[in-house]
């Protein structure tokens, strides 16, 4: 249903470096630069980082990225730790969602809740 999403960030370069690290285990990479905006994806341009228009405290956004397997969720988590991300939840099963929901949650440089999730056993 979604074609792309854009999130406002205070420092495009810092946020791009974060997403370079945490999306690499998921197969994601920088795809395009359009002015000050940077896109990421495996194919296409589903995630865009755009400069914040004001510096009011933003509302938290939650973005969950698909991982091929549990090892990929673990690699996402390790990459986030390596760049100093705040860990919200280490990788684990979340049976309250469903029996094979395996996810890890971290904060990006702007405080957004970023997740990698695998729905396989």
From TrEMBL:
Superkingdom of origin: Bacteria
Gene3D superfamilies, sorted: 2,3-Dihydroxybiphenyl 1,2-Dioxygenase, domain 1
UniProt domain VOC: residue ranges: 1-119
Name of one Pfam family that matches: Glyoxalase
Originating species: Streptomyces yunnanensis
Lineage of the organism: Bacteria, Bacillati, Actinomycetota, Actinomycetes, Kitasatosporales
Protein name as catalogued: VOC family protein
